[in-house]
Amino acid sequence: MALKSESLPLNQILHGDCFELLPGLPECSVDLVFADPPYNLQLQNRLYRPNMTQVDAVDDDWDKFESFEEYDRFTQTWLSACRRVLKDTGTLWVIGSYHNIYRVGTILQDLDFWILNDIAWIKNNPMPNFRGVRFTNAHETLLWAQKKHGARYTFNHHAMKALNDDLQMRSDWHLSLCTGKERLRVKGKKAHPTQKPEALLYRVLLASSKPGDLVLDPFFGTGTTGAVAKRLHRNWIGIERRADYVKIARKRIDAIQADMFAEDLYSFEPRDKPRIPFGALLENGLLQPGQKLYFGLKGAASAIVLADGHIKFNGFSGSIHQVGRQIQNAPCNGWEHWYYLDESTGELHPIDTLRQQLISLNNIGEKH
After folding, report:
1. In three state form, how does the secondary structure of the chain look?
2. What is the pLDDT of residue 274?
3. What is the signed CA dihedral for 19, 23, 27, 32, rounded to 10 degrees?
């Protein structure tokens, strides 16, 4: 199956091999790639638990390679194809284990990708080492790389900080394996042996893409990337060669209902805006302690401004972002969601207008 070079099949699963389909996507058309390629686990024998029940390990044909050289050629081919379709401002994530991630990292650098971070996904519930001959493998590694060194790329620093209780997010992510109701099954068995948790993809996409961006997954599997992209208002393209996985993924993603939240719930403050503390509005007399702020233009909820720059709502006090998140149970840019009452007109205005006024009058604010 070949695609016309000018076509862009948004929010579709392409059934076929990524080697054949990626060349048909337009050059420099993708904002973000997330890749979960075969790990080349090199399993030689069946694995049993101490009670002699067999472990449901990854023994599928798609994870088998004759040699490291064959795996390296495979990796170089798909990475090169992804590099072609990535925008110059785009970034790529690839996940792996100790079996493959070091080889992948070398090839990334050989192809002139610039590695921004390596993330350790620390599994809260890892599979034990049943034979007791080595340490329990309790993490996987994600490499995050940009296509063009020095180009401006998307990193939603404030969103990641908000997601982490207003602390800067670190490179060790403690998340559980995909289990329970989230684990897709067919006739009682795992539909896919390496299904990733949605929490992992939520963090990846929230960190490094914007609403409306195009996310590509060349090893789509059962569609976790597409499912999370749809929830976060990102466009996506998935490529998967197994028809059974395609069928499962389509059913999974079609079942997700588009929510009615405003688009700005999924957008975050750009990095190049001046960084002004909310407390600066108090220091400069633009707001007063004890003044009311209203959440949303209709003022569905109100909070009291405290002298230290926090606000208080129903006994809970925190930053404008923390309290906003408490109210809507979702990430919140407080500058856009909180309003103050202009007593001279009786109208509500976003507090961000006061920040802009402060910037204009005093030329303050440090780029970040």
Report:
1. CCCCCCCCCCCEEEECCHHHHHHHCCCCCEEEEEECCCCCCCCCCCCECCCCCECCCCCCHHHCCCCHHHHHHHHHHHHHHHHHHEEEEEEEEEEECCCCHHHHHHHHHHCCCEEEEEEEEEECCCCCCCCCCCCCCCEEEEEEEECCCCCCCCCCHHHHHHHCCCCCCCCEEEECCCCHHHCCEECCEECCCCCCCHHHHHHHHHHHCCCCCEEEECCCCCCHHHHHHHHCCCEEEEEECCHHHHHHHHHHHHCCCCCCCCHHHHCCCCCCCCECCCHHHHHCCCCCCCCEEEECCCCCEEEEECCCCCEEECCEEECHHHHHHHHHCCCCCHHHHEEEEECCCCEEEECHHHHHHHHHHHCCCECC
2. 60
3. -30
Residue 67 has what pLDDT? 82
Find residue 238's DSSP bridge partners: 13, 217
What pLDDT, in 10s, does the model give residues 168-217?
999 999 998 888 888 899 888 888 788 899 999 999 999 999 999 999 99
